[in-house]
Design goal:
Blueprint (H helix, E strand, L loop, with lengths): L6 E5 L31 H4 L6 E5 L6 E4 L2 E7 L4 E7 L4 E5 L4 E8 L1 E6 L2 E6 L3 E4 L5 E5 L3 E8 L3 H4 L17
Length: 175
C-alpha cells in the first residue's frame, strides 16, 4: 500500500506548534484554500471564535532524523500532535510511557507492539489506541509508515525533549 499524500487540517488557536519557523508554510491560497461564502459557519459559534483552521502539507514538514532507522515529521495544534514516522526495518521505539493518549495507524509495513504482557502484530491498515501512561514498545519488522495522533499535544517534544526512539536501546524481540 502506497501512503497517499496527506493534507492536514490543524487548528491554529494560538497553537504553539513546533516553533513556527520550523514548519513548512501553511497552504492559504488557491487552489487549496478559496472563499466559500456562507459555508462552514455556525452563527452562534462563529461570532465568538472566528479562528480559521490552518492547512498544511504533512510531507512538506521538516524531516527529523531521530535515530539511524527512524525519521519524524510532526505538526501540533492547540490540543493534539500528529506525527508521521518513517521507519526502516529493525527500527525500535524502546519501552516507554507518556501522559498522552496515542492512536497509532500503520499505513505501510508492519510492527510488533508490546504492552502489558501482550504482543500486538500491526500491519498496514491497523489502528491501535494506547491509553495514557500505558507502557509500550514498538519493533518494526518491515520498512514502515506509522501515523500517530497524540492528545493532549506532545508538549515535551514541542519543548525539544528527545523521542524515546532516539535512545535506540531495545533489543529485537525474542520468541
Amino acid at each position: 500500500m502506497r501512503f497517499p499524500v496527506l493534507m492536514l487540517l490543524a487548528l491554529s488557536i494560538s497553537a504553539p506548534a513546533i516553533a513556527e519557523e520550523h514548519l513548512a508554510p501553511c497552504l492559504s491560497g488557491p487552489p487549496a484554500v478559496t472563499d466559500a461564502p456562507g459555508r462552514g459557519i455556525q452563527p452562534e459559534v462563529s461570532a465568538h471564535s472566528a479562528v480559521l483552521p490552518t492547512l498544511y502539507q504533512l510531507d512538506a514538514q521538516p524531516i527529523e532524523q531521530i535515530s539511524p532507522l527512524i525519521q519524524r515529521q510532526m505538526l501540533s495544534g492547540a490540543q493534539s500532535t500528529l506525527v508521521k514516522w518513517t521507519v526502516k526495518k529493525g527500527g525500535v521505539f524502546p519501552l516507554h510511557h507518556h501522559s498522552n493518549e496515542q492512536t497509532t495507524w500503520i499505513t505501510q509495513g508492519s510492527c510488533q507492539v508490546y504492552s502489558q504482557g501482550r504482543k500486538f502484530v500491526m500491519t498496514a491498515g491497523m489502528v491501535l489506541i494506547i491509553p495514557p501512561n500505558t507502557p509500550h514498545e514498538f519493533f518494526c519488522t518491515e520498512d514502515t509508515i506509522d501515523i500517530d495522533f497524540f492528545a493532549p499535544q506532545r508538549q515535551d517534544w514541542i519543548d525539544g525533549a528527545p523521542s524515546a526512539a532516539a535512545s535506540g536501546l531495545a533489543a529485537a524481540p525474542h520468541e
